[in-house]
Amino acid sequence: MAKAVSKDREARIEAVRKFMADSGIDGLVVDSWQNVFYLSGFSGFGDATLLVTPASLCIITDSRYYVQAEEQAGDFELVKGHCRDLNLMKGLVAREGCRTVGFENLAVRYNAYENYYTKLEAELKPIGNFFLTQRRVKTPEEIARVEAACDLASEALVKTLPYVKPGVTEIEVAARLEYEMRKLGADKPSFETIIASGVRGSMPHGTATAKVIEKGDGVTIDFGAFYKGMCSDMTRTVFVGEPSAKLREIYGIVKEAQEAAIDGYKPGMKGGDLDRIARDVIVSGGYGDFFGHGLGHGVGIDIHEDVPVSTGSELVLTPGMVFSIEPGIYVPDLGGVRIEDLVTIEDGKLRRVTKSPTTELTVL
Ligand code: ZN
Ligand code: ZN
Hints:
The protein is about 35% helix and about 20% strand.
């Protein structure tokens, strides 16, 4: 029984079919979990393959997922079997009369290419960055789901902060945070939680270790929830007891850099332009050599999507894009501060999708 399909998903399938027609593709095999989910709504991640043709939609999955596939992807014909069964796909390609089959060359592994795709008895055509480009611009429904993931993560942080104190390890803080997110309904963390305390704060991607948090430490917490198929991504640096004057100065500059970028956005700006606004603040504060990464990146089904907000990015930022603004300063042997929020473009302005406050916070 075919189920009603969301307008969003109908539009995505229409866009795929238009792309196929324009590129001379009459069959598209999709097997990355992200794009399977994007097109079909199926969330048995990694266990389904799609075939899209001008007239048909097929989802191949096995008995663990029959009910789920009918519920989530009711507009797709359920083809029962293993998602990587070559003969099954060969049969479908023949049945549909596909001559030119598109494949996700950015996601397909070499072995799969050799042993599966090249054996499909059709001409193969890489689809390049089609999905990356499509997924850059979100619908209001998608933005609402990112926002819900952000709200959940913000609430988990509030519940976790009382546990951030001297004597507790970084891993304990990470575990608490992930526990709180799960309790609030998250499927999982959207990436490995980063907890970098004290001098470890100078490592932008310092995942949690057994290091014990000490009085006076800055603790950089970078984390996210994966919720209803969307990621959140947020960073706060909190101080355990009074920070040194230097750390406090750094916090002020990072906060100012983030606000300058968010307030300074103008329609038509490119990713590189926004990066420069924040970078200029950090350079004039005297810490230009200590901000080594880009200002931001796209977020959606993946924690890093293709909206580069970094030096030299020529991508024009447009409404519907959701991306992070995450300036940071990392000083070896001292520590670091990063403040990260997600934003989207609405009415010609950047709107914060993350609502958690960015004011300097001391816990003890
Ligand atoms: Zn982050
Ligand atoms: Zn990020």
